[in-house]
Amino acid sequence: MSERKPTARPTRKRKPRINLALERQIASLTCAGKSQKAISVWLGIPRGKVYRYQKHAGLAARPTPPSPEQVKRLLDRGNGWRKAAAELGCSEHVVRYVAEQNGFRRKARPIPAQLIADILAHKDYGRTLAKQYRVNYKKTLALVHATLDCGPLIPGRTQLPLDSTWPRVKAKEGK
What is the mean pLDDT of residues 132-142? Predict the structure, then answer.
């Protein structure tokens, strides 16, 4: 008997099938700024397929990051990472990355002179002053301690706002 030798079949590379409707959906979601993972979850297809369709359509898998000029303009206006990201339509991480790569920082707000005057006059409590002048509470307390040169403040409502357990140094200097 003659033995048959298996013939080697030529391997053909299969041309991937492209669903035009799916490609249009992926293209519109990509242009809307959605990530590959979000698109795959939304359409119920594997993420690799989303990548292939994006590549076939000539779209970038990742949206282009904002320009350094845009980020600098928003940070100079006093916006934080989150507000700048929302305005630019990208993630907070991308804004922070672009800013740190270019050495941008958010401009610090100057401390109002009236706040210091109110602290010296013991006009109101720390939390109220912080809200009134829109300054961070911890920074307000640090300013109180530095301005009045006092120790820990008495918690709660006291007879004199911004009262401390330590004797007031400013009052001693006047004697």
Answer: 88
Q: What is the pLDDT of residue 50?
A: 92
Q: Are 132 and 114 in contact (CB under 8 A)?
A: no
- Does the model's pTM come out above 0.85? no
CB atoms within 10 A of CB 60: 9
Distance of CA 157 to the CA centre of its chain: 36
Helix ranges, the chain (H)? 20-31, 36-43, 47-57, 68-76, 81-88, 92-102, 113-120, 126-133, 137-148, 169-174
Is the pLDDT at 59 greater than 70? The verdict is yes
Q: What angle do CA 152, 112, 172 make, to 5 degrees?
A: 40
- What are the extents of the domains in the chain? 20-57, 68-102, 113-174
**Cα separation of 139 and 111, whole Å?**
10
Token look-up 């079949």 returns: 9
DSSP label at residue 7 = P
CB 22 within 8 A of CB 56: no
The number of CA neighbours under 13 Å toward the Cβ of 116 is 8
Between helix 137-148 and helix 126-133 the angle, nearest 10°, is: 120
b/e map 133-148, b = 16+ CB within 10 Å: eebeeeebbebbbeeb
